[in-house]
Amino acid sequence: MTDKEAVKLVHEAIERGCNFFDTAPNYGLGKSESILGEAFKGRRDEVIINSKCGHHTDDVQSFDPKRLIESVDGSLQRLQTDYLDSLLLHNPPFDTLSQTSEVYGVLEDLKQQGKIKAYGASIDTGKEVDQISAETNSDVIEVMFNIFHQEPLEAIQRAYDKGVGVIVKVLLDSGWLSGKYDASSTFKGIRSRWSEAEIKERSKLVQDVRNIIGENQSMASVDLQYILSFKAFASVIPGARNSE
Question: Which stretches are annotated as coiled coil (predicted)?
Answer without folding.
Answer: none
